[in-house]
Amino acid sequence: EGGIIDDLMVTRSADPDEDGVLMLVVNAARKAVDYEHLERALPPNVKLLRAEHRALIALQGPSAAAVLARHAPDTATMAFMSANTTRFDGIECQVSRSGYTGEDGYEISVKAIRIRAIVERLLAHPEVKLIGLGARDSLRLEAALCLYGHDIDASTSPVEAGLAWSIGGRRRQEGGFPGASRILDELQRGPDRRRVGLEMGGRIPAREGADILFEGTAIGKVRSGGFGPSVGRPIAMGYVDARFATPGTAVIMPVRGKELPARIVPMPFVPHRYYRT
Known about the structure:
Elements: E1 9-12, E2 22-25, H1 31-41, E3 54-60, H2 64-69, E4 83-88, E5 91-96, E6 105-111, H3 115-123, H4 133-142, H5 169-174, H6 180-189, E7 193-200, E8 211-214, E9 217-228, E10 233-241, E11 250-255, E12 258-265
Antiparallel strand pairs: 1-2, 3-6, 4-5, 5-6, 7-10, 7-12, 8-9, 9-10, 11-12
């Protein structure tokens, strides 16, 4: 029906010996849905292999390239969103230059029995620290990256979520893909609602589920919200009636019994720092 099942990562290795193999990184909470959907649609000569013996870590931030290059020199020149098989101090792993923070960085997939060795060697560098999901979530919010189950779900279309860039030109011309009727219609006439960025006027953040009001009338709801350490103020993302999605629109959000002023702003809140060649 034009909604989003998941926002998984699909990579094709640059290694010629791995031609014909795609690596998928799925959301843990959605993997059963993803697997069922893929297996139902794949042709007989394509198999889905569950790599449950592997682990995944993310090395993110401005020092990520320099640190990883000390162990895997060929990763330094990898382009953003490229992937390859390499060796980390002799340990074979799959590396993609990607992440979920808006910063330059890598995701490293390796056999689970070898993951501890890689993590310990990375942590031996003073530039590297462990972070939790709270830090990751503030970074992805500042980068305006969607979190499945919050900013996107099975009822959300890629168009209203601001993800129409993921729909290629051939798909738009030929149609015929799942959800094409709704998606192509929204591409042509525009969606009824849009994902927007919100900047709070005070220091109190608006959380998921908060109403977004315009002149006393509800025009949408917050899907993700919190304090943005990099911008020094509360920020949020939500969906509003498309008529009110213009940056600069002043709105009100009731939070803890108070009506807090906010305004719709362009996204991302912090510029992406992906590596570009």
